[in-house]
Design goal:
12 helices, alpha/beta, TIM Barrel, 9-stranded mixed beta sheet, 2 domains, Lyase, Ornithine Decarboxylase, Chain A, domain 1, about 425 residues, binds pyridoxal-5'-phosphate, 8-stranded parallel beta barrel
């Protein structure tokens, strides 16, 4: 469920007409709904009620500080995957003891930044990284709380580019090596082993892979405890999928996911952390774009938009589907026709949808990409010297620009010319 609905024939974000935002900020832009962000956070928080838990929003999904602050004020922690994300979370006012540091290649500098500013835990991804965290902690005279990310070798049944829990993926350590790795961790004076971490992939649409992984984590918890480790926190990652269309089978709900967690791990008495990103932000955001031209080809018509693959790369990168709707609600019974919906970038990959049925559209009409809140703005680039598009946050009948569109001068002046030219 989201808060982007038609009212009197016009698409709204909560109580603000999309066309009003477009008039104020220009197109294309991203717009997020505060009510949807909070609703999704609360679904997870409620799903784990009765268990000691923290929902750490995976901020790589959408990392604008206004979004972070909205969620942090509701009680969310943050899952970060780089030193930059760590600093951004701190800048948004998130305390260090609510920030979890994930990511396969944390550098000594990033580790130092987090240990200096305060950190809830590092999710260690490899043995060499564990040694570096230990060394940096000793250098700073502190103890680094850690979990080790284990790779449970389960098939997440999702797109290959976002599956992370198979043995061939680069993430975590093989579960079979866990005893050795934990023994080593336990012997390092700069580390305190507090738990286990697992994250098997993104956009999972079934519970079964989670159940397989969490069952392995439960067994591992008992084994590591028997080997003398005080395992008291389980970080279960993110990955619960969202419906990208209204027609297909809906993925499991957070409440069902929460019940699975309690069923597989509840008996262990551990604190539970989860790291949802997509499910919190995905359906809380739209990308709004304008039709520049309607071009008639030999056997098809093209809608050429002012938005492009550099603004929303998911269709080009993951063959992802986004529902695309007209901001002006089509009259009931109006005949739809197929269009190829494309951006102006010089690549055939800059195609958002092929032969998509849409109401008749004209140059100047606004359209909205639904489910664009996660892995949208954060993956944008300035390819073709196209400015990063603005982000807008709506809250009831108010809206605010939370990232401005840069000027061409700002973009161009970022280059520096060597003295020999
Ligand atoms: C990307 C990622 C997440 C979030 O995944 P979603 O599918 O967006 O919920 C959580 N944890 C880790 C370690 C990640 O890399």
């Amino acid at each position: 469920m989201d808060h982007f609905l038609y009212r009197d024939g016009a698409l709204y974000a909560e109580d603000v007409p999309i066309s009003e935002i477009a008039a104020a900020v220009g197109t294309p832009f991203y717009v997020y709904s505060t009510a949807t962000l909070l609703r999704h956070f609360k679904l997870f928080d409620d799903a784990l009620e009765g268990t000691d838990h923290l929902v750490c929003y995976a901020m790589k999904a959408a990392s604008n500080q206004a979004i972070l602050k909205t969620l942090a004020q509701a009680g969310a922690g943050m899952d970060v995957v780089s030193g930059g994300e760590y600093l951004r979370a701190k800048a948004a006012g998130v305390p260090g003891d609510k920030i979890v540091f994930s990511g396969v290649g944390k550098t000594a500098d990033e580790i130092r930044t987090a240990l200096t500013g305060g950190i809830r835990q590092f999710n260690v991804e490899s043995e060499p990284e564990m040694e570096v965290i230990n060394a940096v902690a000793l250098e700073l005279g502190v103890i680094a709380p850690i979990t080790v990310r284990v790779n449970p070798d389960v098939d997440a049944k999702t797109h290959a580019k976002i599956a992370t829990g198979k043995s061939e993926n680069k993430f975590g350590i093989p579960i079979a090596r866990a005893s050795d790795v934990y023994a080593r961790a336990g012997s390092l004076p700069g580390l305190e082993v507090i738990g286990i971490d697992v994250h098997i992939g993104s956009q999972l649409t079934e519970l079964e892979p989670f159940e397989l992984a969490y069952t392995k984590v439960a067994e591992l918890t008992e084994r590591l405890r028997a080997e003398g480790h005080n395992i008291r926190r389980l970080d279960l990652g993110g990955g619960l999928g969202i419906p990208y269309t209204r027609s297909n089978d809906a993925p499991p709900l957070p409440v069902e996911y929460g019940a699975l967690i309690k069923k597989t791990l509840g008996h262990l008495g551990c604190e539970i952390e989860i790291e949802p990103g997509r499910l919190i932000a995905g359906n809380a955001g739209l990308m709004v774009s304008k039709v520049i031209y309607v071009k008639s080809g030999e056997d098809r018509d093209f809608l050429i938009l002012d938005g492009a693959m550099n603004d929303l790369i998911r269709p080009a990168m993951y063959e992802a589907h986004h529902d695309i709707v007209a901001v002006q609600e089509p009259a009931p019974g109006v005949e739809q026709r197929p269009y190829d919906i494309v951006g102006p970038v010089c690549e055939s990959g800059d195609t958002f949808a092929k032969q998509r049925n849409m109401p008749p559209l004209q140059a100047g009409d606004l359209i909205a990409f639904r489910s664009a809140g996660a892995y949208g703005a954060v993956m944008a680039s300035e390819y073709n010297t196209r400015p990063l598009i603005p982000e807008v946050l709506v809250n009831g009948d108010q809206f605010a620009v939370i990232r401005e569109r840069p000027s061409f001068d700002e973009i161009i002046n970022r280059d520096t010319i060597p003295s020999w030219l």
